[in-house]
């Protein structure tokens, strides 16, 4: 197989306009879309994830949407395995894959590979860590991590719960800090691809306005009703990765609290807006760290990105 198979990576923070751009390229023919979004993998989580509607998906089919239930987990390793299989299939159909999304961990795993010998997730150990946090607080769990893996302690914050769980899980399984294993173990890099990396990085003020408008629309079209339906259908709790998605955590807290007053509703909306802005901030940080190691073309203007990519791939 050719070692120069092209892959287009279209990245950007939430609400940056990357999906619309990918769909425009798809219309020109010769492309297939692969979602790079850790929230879009969940079935029945549509409004709060800004998932393309069924009608939009019929016009612009996306791979890796609706692949698991909200009770299941989907790792970066699974993403790399699934996306590489899809990329190869798309190339066999003489088309070019466009990977579009904002989950930078997935992009990093695809661009740089993953440590081959890191242990798989252990549900029992994860449950023990979560039970410890629930009983004694996340600060105690974070302090334990900082003792056994000072480098991870410097990188993570107490609020980085999923990363803390994974790092402690690896240490409890292997007895070795995850940061050491990541440095020492070989990477499984998909050399057979040539990545063309593009990033939409709009002005922060403009992006915050787009985020606010998107969330306003979500609430208006029934986001809270969607979470109520999820609670009826699934045995949900706040520790599930699906319920850590921005918006869902805040809505779940509101619905479980019992106080449905207008004041609490407004607080929920404010918390969801703040969490989404914080997500965008983290995505900017991830993108800049990726740019230090990989060639990127970045755009602050969505209009300019459309014009350039139309010329390149029109």
TrEMBL record:
Gene3D superfamilies: 1.10.20.140, P-loop containing nucleotide triphosphate hydrolases. Residues 37-40, 162-166, 244-249 are annotated as: Interaction with substrate tRNA. It is an enzyme of class 2 (transferase). The record marks 103, 126 as: Interaction with substrate tRNA. InterPro entries: Dimethylallyltransferase (IPR039657), IPT (IPR018022), P-loop_NTPase (IPR027417). The keyword Transferase applies. Pfam families: IPPT. Its cofactor is Mg(2+). One of its GO terms (biological process) is tRNA modification. One of its GO terms (molecular function) is tRNA dimethylallyltransferase activity. Belongs to the IPP transferase family. This is tRNA dimethylallyltransferase. It comes from Acinetobacter gerneri DSM 14967 = CIP 107464 = MTCC 9824. The lineage of its organism: Bacteria, Pseudomonadati, Pseudomonadota, Gammaproteobacteria, Moraxellales. The gene is miaA.
């Amino acid at each position: 197989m050719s070692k120069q198979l092209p892959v287009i990576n279209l990245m950007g923070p939430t609400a940056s306009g990357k999906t619309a751009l990918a769909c425009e390229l798809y219309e020109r023919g010769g492309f297939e879309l692969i979602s790079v979004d850790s929230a879009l993998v969940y079935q029945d989580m549509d409004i709060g994830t800004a998932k393309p509607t069924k009608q939009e998906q019929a016009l612009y089919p996306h791979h890796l949407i609706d692949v698991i239930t909200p009770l299941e987990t989907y790792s970066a390793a699974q993403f790399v395995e699934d996306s590489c299989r899809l990329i190869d299939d798309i190339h066999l159909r003489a088309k070019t894959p466009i990977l579009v999304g904002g989950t930078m961990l997935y992009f990093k795993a695809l661009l740089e590979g993953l440590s081959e010998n890191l242990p798989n997730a252990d549900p029992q150990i994860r449950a023990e860590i979560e039970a410890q946090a629930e009983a004694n607080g996340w600060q105690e769990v974070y302090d334990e991590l900082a003792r056994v893996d000072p480098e991870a302690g410097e990188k993570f914050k107490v609020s980085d719960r999923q990363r803390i769980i994974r790092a402690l899980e690896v240490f409890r399984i292997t007895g070795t800090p995850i940061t050491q294993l990541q440095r020492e173990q070989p990477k499984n890099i998909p050399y057979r691809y040539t990545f063309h990396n593009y990033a939409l990085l709009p002005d922060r003020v403009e992006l915050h306005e787009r985020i606010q408008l998107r969330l306003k629309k979500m609430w208006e079209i029934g986001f809270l009703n969607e979470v109520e339906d999820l609670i009826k259908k699934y045995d949900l709790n706040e520790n599930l990765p699906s319920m850590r998605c921005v918006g869902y955590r805040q809505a779940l807290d509101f619905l479980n609290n019992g106080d449905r007053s207008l004041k609490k509703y407004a607080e929920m909306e404010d918390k969801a807006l703040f969490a989404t802005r914080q997500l965008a901030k983290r995505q900017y940080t991830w993108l800049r760290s990726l740019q230090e190691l990989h060639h990127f073309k970045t755009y602050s203007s969505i209009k300019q990105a459309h014009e350039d990519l139309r010329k390149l791939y029109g």
